[in-house]
Amino acid sequence: MVALDILYFAWVREGVGKDGETIDHPGAEMTVAELIGQLAERGGGYAQAFAETGRLRAALDQNFVSLDTKLGEARELALFPPVTGG
Amino acid sequence: MTEAHIAVGEADFDPAAQLSRLEALGGGAVASFTGIVRGGDGLQAMRLDHYPAMTQAQIARIVAEAQARWPLLGVVVIHRVGDLTPGERIVFVGTASSHRAAALESCAFLIDWLKTSAPFWKKERFADGRAEWVEARAEDDAARERWG
């Protein structure tokens, strides 16, 4: 089974309560938004962290992507708020 | 070939040393921006998180974009992470060119892009015990978008 590493940053990490996890890859056709919906269904901190998808940003294999992007062959998904560096 | 120096880490840096590095390239024009942790509103400390596997590569992409747009002799981007207090340096952008407009414009471009396109997140801690993640600001997006 192919794996997908998920990384969480900033308040997403605090809401979920961990900085990452590895899941069975849900398939190339699933979009980032669909996977976020599945994570939110776990309830608890996940439901809270993923309640407002408009506040979330994502990267697949370390490239920023929109939430309607399909997972494809990516092996690393990162979920986080809009960046605030500089 | 542009000389590019990118550093991400907890260590402080010396802006004067970075400017000397850029001046030594012989271009005639050096511009820089230094970002400092702003005090006030009871801010006691700030913590900068980042996405280590992505940060360096993403800054390199932003630097490459600046190099494609302006004739640059050198670029320095330094971004700190970890715990910082008011008055401490957070970020440095320096550019060297043979032309002042290229040095000034590329420096502004780089800091505008860093604010909106590099994976850093700030959390502020206040004297009254509050700790809040900084919200992204629409004016930062607007500042980036003026570059097209």
From TrEMBL, chain A:
Protein family: Belongs to the MoaD family.
Stored NCBIfam families: moaD
GO biological process, one term: Mo-molybdopterin cofactor biosynthetic process
PANTHER family given in the database record: MOLYBDOPTERIN SYNTHASE SULFUR CARRIER SUBUNIT (PTHR33359)
Protein's UniProt keywords contain Nucleotide-binding: yes
CDD domains: Ubl_MoaD
Gene Ontology molecular function: any one: nucleotide binding
Protein's name according to its UniProt entry: Molybdopterin synthase sulfur carrier subunit
Keywords assigned: Nucleotide-binding
Taxonomy of the source species: Bacteria, Pseudomonadati, Pseudomonadota, Alphaproteobacteria, Sphingomonadales
Signal peptide positions (record): none
Superkingdom of origin organism: Bacteria
GO CC terms of this entry: molybdopterin adenylyltransferase complex
From TrEMBL, chain B:
Any Pfam family hit: MoaE
Pathway: Cofactor biosynthesis; molybdopterin biosynthesis
GO molecular-function terms, A-Z: molybdopterin synthase activity
Keywords: Molybdenum cofactor biosynthesis
GO terms under biological process: Mo-molybdopterin cofactor biosynthetic process
Catalytic activity: 2 [molybdopterin-synthase sulfur-carrier protein]-C-terminal-Gly-aminoethanethioate + cyclic pyranopterin phosphate + H2O = molybdopterin + 2 [molybdopterin-synthase sulfur-carrier protein]-C-terminal Gly-Gly + 2 H(+)
InterPro entries: MoaE_sf, Mopterin_biosynth_MoaE
Subunit structure: Heterotetramer of 2 MoaD subunits and 2 MoaE subunits. Also stable as homodimer. The enzyme changes between these two forms during catalysis.
Job of this protein: Converts molybdopterin precursor Z into molybdopterin. This requires the incorporation of two sulfur atoms into precursor Z to generate a dithiolene group. The sulfur is provided by MoaD.
Family indicated by similarity: Belongs to the MoaE family.
Name of this protein: Molybdopterin synthase catalytic subunit
